[in-house]
From TrEMBL:
Taxonomic placement: Bacteria, Pseudomonadati, Bacteroidota, Cytophagia, Cytophagales
Domain of life where this protein originates: Bacteria
Protein name: DUF2750 domain-containing protein
InterPro entries (alphabetical): DUF2750
Amino acid sequence: MQEHTNENMEANYRKFIQRIVDTERVWGLTHDDTWATSSSAEFEDAEVILFWSDAAGAEACAEDDWKEYKSESISLVEFLENWCVGMYGDQLLLGPDWDASLIGREMEPLVVALDVVQELKHKNKTLEFTQYDSQDEFEEQVIEALEGEDE
């Protein structure tokens, strides 16, 4: 059995963020409008929706219960506005770039969204949001929501 250290999982997560910012695409596994999810290993009664930074990563997990599933991509803006924000509202977790053994980090979707925005800034990239006036407004609202959790 492969050992999954926190450092490996952190490095894998960083690669996920960098890749989706570079390609402005995020991948999932879908079948009949259903996206691949897994039960959380960390939290009882929590669901994790899985996303990958490329089609190959998603397709590597399309077996067993997901053998009917196909890889599908969405834009980075849709991922941020609809998925991360919606998953936060639904109290779902996000699984970035899980491996074929279905092992990976379980993240708060707004933390992932904020990491994406930070990487966009680092690379001097700006996305055209449809539900927010600007990338800065999206970032401000994500930060406010995360700070609200701490109170």
